[in-house]
Amino acid sequence: MMSWASQGVSITRTSRSQYLAVGKVDYGSLRPGDLIFYGSDPSDPSSIYHVAMYTGDGMMIEATLPGYPLSENPLRLAGAMPYAGRP
Length: 87
Hints:
Blueprint: H1 2-5, H2 15-21, E1 23-25, E2 35-39, E3 48-56, E4 59-62, E5 71-74, E6 84-86
Antiparallel strand pairs: 1-6, 2-3, 3-4, 4-5
């Protein structure tokens, strides 16, 4: 939310509401800044529990646990919702 806000784009605070509000993007069309959402049931947006941001070159940035610094990790699609999001 804050990364997009720094660029003048307002999105909602929670990962679930973000998924419902953003444009849907196929994973083959990812661009840096796109959001990757993870849920326990990919067919149910109410199951979303995590969001990461694509940084390019097969990498994403995420806060893996509350209180831990952000880390850049390889793009992980296991458990991802059917589409990424683009605010």
